[in-house]
C-alpha cells in the first residue's frame, strides 16, 4: 500500500514482567476483559498470569510510568507446548490449547494450578477463543476441525469440517475469523445459529500468520510471513477506503534495492479502532487504518516479538520477546538465559488515537 506516513519513534523504558528464567518462547498474550490481569502461553507447556498496574507519568512530561506487577501462578495440565489462550467474558477462567491436542480450562478462583480438559482434537490445537454471545469455547486445530464446547459437556456442541488446517483465529462479538493453511480465510457468524458467512482467498500472496477482527466487526486485518498486512472489509461502506495491503515488517537494504523480510507475528486492535503489528524484526508499530498513517514505531528490541495485546482500558500494551521459529529448530537457542521476556508499554492517548486524514 502507499501512503502510510510515520510519526512518533523511539522506545521508552518499558516494564519487564517478573518471570522464571526457564520460561520458553511465548506463543500468546491476552488481557482479562474485566481487569488488568495478563495471561501468557508458552512452549514450556505452561500458562501463566500476572496482575499488572501502572501509574501514568506526571503531567508535563519528562517522567516515566510507575509499575507494579505480581506473578500470580502457572498452570499444570498440558503435556506439550501451549499455543494459545483466551479468557472467559467474566475473567474467571482461562482457556488454553496446545500440541497435546487438548483444550483445557483453568479456574482462577479455585486457587489451584490444575486445569481441566474441556475438549480435544485429533491433532494439535492451534487456536482457542471464547464466544460471549453463546457462552461457548471455540477451538481450531491442525485436524482441519473447528469445534464449539460447552464446559459442562465432554462432547462438542457443534463442529465444522474446514478446508485446511487452522493457522490463526479471532473472535469478536458475533464474528469469528479463521485463517487457514493454503491462504484461505473463513468467516463465521455467531449471531443466531452459528454458520459460515463467507470463504475467501487471503488478499496476501503468502502464508497467513495472524488475523484480527475490527472492534466494530466490519472487517479484519490479516498478516503474513512476507512482512505485509491487509485490511479487508466485509462490505464496502460509503466514505470508507477500499481494501488495501501494505508493507510493515521489512528492512530496506542496499539503498532500498533489496529488502529483508520478516513475518508479521501478531495484530492487536485498540478500542479506538487503531491497531498494532509486531514481527520477526523485533519492531512494534501502531497504525491508523482509516487515515492510513503509522502512528508510532518503536526501536527494535533485539529479538523477535511473537505476540502482543492491548488491555481493555487501552492504556497498556503487552508484547513478548521470544524466538519465533522462523529459522526452524536450528535457530533455537533454548530456554533460559533471559532470552524470553514479556514487556508492558504504557500507551498514552497521543500514541494510539486516530489522526485526521492527510490532505493529498
From TrEMBL:
It holds the Pfam family WD40. Keywords: Repeat, WD repeat. The keyword rRNA-binding does not apply. The keyword Repeat applies. Residues 1-30 are annotated as: Disordered. SMART domains: WD40. WD repeats lie at residues 28-53, 75-116, 118-159. This is Uncharacterized protein.
Amino acid at each position: 500500500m502507499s501512503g502510510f506516513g510515520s510519526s512518533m519513534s523511539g522506545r521508552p523504558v518499558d516494564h519487564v514482567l517478573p518471570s522464571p528464567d526457564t520460561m520458553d518462547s511465548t506463543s500468546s498474550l491476552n488481557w482479562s476483559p474485566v481487569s488488568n490481569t495478563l495471561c501468557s502461553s508458552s512452549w514450556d507447556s505452561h500458562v501463566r498470569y500476572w496482575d499488572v498496574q501502572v501509574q501514568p507519568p506526571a503531567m508535563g512530561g519528562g517522567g516515566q510510568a510507575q509499575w507494579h506487577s505480581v506473578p500470580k501462578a502457572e498452570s499444570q495440565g498440558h503435556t506439550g507446548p501451549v499455543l494459545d489462550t483466551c479468557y472467559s467474558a467474566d475473567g474467571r477462567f482461562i482457556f488454553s490449547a496446545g500440541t497435546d491436542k487438548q483444550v483445557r480450562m483453568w479456574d482462577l478462583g479455585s486457587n489451584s494450578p490444575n486445569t481441566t480438559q474441556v475438549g480435544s482434537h485429533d491433532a494439535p490445537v492451534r487456536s482457542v477463543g471464547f464466544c460471549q454471545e453463546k457462552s461457548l469455547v471455540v477451538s481450531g486445530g491442525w485436524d482441519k476441525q473447528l469445534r464449539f464446547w460447552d464446559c459442562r459437556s465432554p462432547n462438542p456442541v457443534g463442529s465444522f469440517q474446514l478446508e485446511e488446517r487452522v493457522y490463526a483465529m479471532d473472535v469478536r462479538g458475533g464474528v469469528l475469523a479463521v485463517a487457514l493453511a493454503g491462504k484461505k480465510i473463513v468467516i463465521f457468524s455467531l449471531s443466531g445459529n452459528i454458520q459460515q458467512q463467507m470463504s475467501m482467498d487471503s488478499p496476501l500472496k503468502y502464508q497467513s500468520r495472524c488475523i484480527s477482527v475490527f472492534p466494530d466487526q466490519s472487517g479484519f486485518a490479516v498478516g503474513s510471513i512476507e512482512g505485509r498486512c491487509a485490511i479487508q472489509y466485509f462490505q464496502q461502506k460509503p466514505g470508507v477506503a477500499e481494501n488495501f495491503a501494505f508493507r510493515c515488517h521489512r528492512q530496506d537494504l542496499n539503498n532500498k534495492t533489496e529488502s529483508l523480510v520478516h513475518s508479521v507475528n501478531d495484530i492487536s486492535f485498540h478500542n479506538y479502532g487503531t491497531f498494532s503489528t509486531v514481527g520477526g524484526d523485533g519492531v512494534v508499530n501502531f497504525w491508523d487504518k482509516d487515515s492510513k498513517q503509522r502512528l508510532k514505531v518503536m526501536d527494535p528490541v533485539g529479538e523477535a516479538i511473537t505476540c502482543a495485546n492491548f488491555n481493555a482500558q487501552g492504556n497498556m500494551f503487552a508484547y513478548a520477546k521470544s524466538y519465533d521459529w522462523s529459522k526452524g529448530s536450528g535457530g533455537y537457542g533454548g530456554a533460559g538465559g533471559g532470552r524470553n521476556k514479556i514487556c508492558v508499554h504504557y500507551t498514552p492517548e497521543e500514541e494510539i488515537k486516530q489522526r485526521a486524514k492527510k490532505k493529498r
